[in-house]
Amino acid sequence: MIPYQASVAIITLSYTAGKPPEFTIILAFLTGLITLGMGVLQLGFIVNFISTPVMSGFTSAVAITIISTQVKSLLGLHFKANGILEVIDGLVSDVHQTKLHDTVLSVICITSLIFLQVGHIPFLR
Q1: Among 56, 63, 87, 88, which one is least packed by beta carbons within 10 Å?
Q2: 42 and 60 both lie in a single domain
Q3: In this structure, are residues 28 and 5 in contact, taking their beta carbons and an 8 Å threshold?
């Protein structure tokens, strides 16, 4: 499952993009006040009304967004892209500029993380 902080960061970016940092501080403060108020009033049961398909769709969308923003860094490419279509277009046009060292390091790190998560490394058992 996607970490909670990643989805919160994406939502925060959508509301505060192009605004001064004070807007982010105000948003965090108001979010804390609302969360505290809901805790005091014991309104946590409201979350049960969000359907499973909605939560699954939101989680999948966050995962796709994170992957599309990270793939250019994994390959060592530098181009401006905001959406998945722009990332695909940038990859197709700049694939010949892929930096070998960045790509090798990315593959090693991803492979290590997968092995650590699955637990197939014998000396870690």
Answers
A1: 56
A2: no
A3: no
